[in-house]
Amino acid sequence: MADWALILGASSGFGEATSLALAREGFNIFGVHLDRRSTLPNVQRIIHDIEALGRRSEFFNINAGDEDKRRDVLNRAAEVLQAEGHDQIRVLLHSLAFGTLKPFLAQTPEDSITKTQMDMTLDIMAHSLVYWVQDLIQRKLMGQGGRIYAMTSAGSTRIFPTYGAVSAAKAALESHIRQLAFELAPIGITINAIRAGVTDTPALRKIPGHEHMAEVAAARNPMGRMTTPADVAAAIAVLCQPSTHWITGTVIGVDGGEDIVA
Could you count the other beta carbons within 10 Å of the beta carbon of residue 133? Predict the structure, then answer.
């Protein structure tokens, strides 16, 4: 009987690559994504690729920050698991990249970030991790041997123009990881942040000046190229093994050494 993984942000970037990597390792996939009609064909391709590997998939096109929608997804997950005689989700990946890229202090008030935009960025990219974990644990949908990962970046400690709210979200996410690691340890669940190198994803392409960021990352990386989603997904697949039970509450760099180069 195949284990299930729940991927938040499953339709692109790290979420897409990890969905496929875990399917290759034998996992069925619950995928949560937010897509318009124009990008739904890519979602259908991902589902087809998962099922071509002999795995099951259920995808939900929702706002992962919506409390009612979150509960709908987990209600359905519980139904699927019960029907299979399976009792738990073994892996959760939080890979939500939905935030506002605006400076705190712009030339005009209209171009500066607002409270609503700041709150939304922190809620989706950081706080939502806590709420998904709370619901999983309260419903007993994850227990002993569970693995939780959340995508962070070097932006948690570094500043880029217009990246202030996202930087704050990544820093908050890493703090949430530490607190959750402490509280999850007694029930045998580990949780870690994955710090990828600069990677060509839809989220990166939304950052003003991303072309320069990509060039600098490729030039400074000791491996001679940028990180790819497949690099990160392969690492997560390895980290899901039972033998990683003593790794928790930390930030794991998956960047080919990019972060060590000044």
Answer: 22
Cα–Cα separations (whole angstroms), residue 15 to 41, 108, 236: 16, 36, 11
CATH of domain 4-254: 3.40.50.720
List, in sequence order, the alpha helices (H) in the chain.
Answer: 13-24, 40-52, 67-84, 115-122, 128-138, 164-184, 202-205, 210-220, 229-239
pLDDT in tens, 218-241: 899 999 999 999 999 999 999 999
In this predicted structure, the answer to whether residue 186 has a pLDDT above a threshold of 80 is: yes
CB-CB contact of 36 with 65 (8 Å) = no
pTM attached to this predicted model:
0.95
**234: exposed, middle or buried (C-beta count within 10 Å: 0-12, 13-18, 19+)?**
middle
Please tell me the distance from the alpha carbon of residue 222 to that of residue 236, in angstroms, as a whole number. 21
Which residues make beta-bridge pairs with 251? 193
C-alpha radius of gyration, the chain, whole number: 18
Calculate mean pLDDT across residues 143-170: 94
Q: Is 32 exposed, middle or buried (0-12, 13-18, 19+ CB in 10 A)?
A: buried
All structural domains of the chain with their residue ranges: 4-254
The proportion of the chain whose per-residue pLDDT surpasses 70, expressed as a percent, equals 100
Q: Which residues pair with 94 in a beta bridge?
A: 8, 150
pLDDT digit string, tens, across residues 15-71 = 999 999 999 999 999 999 999 999 999 999 999 999 999 999 999 999 999 999 999
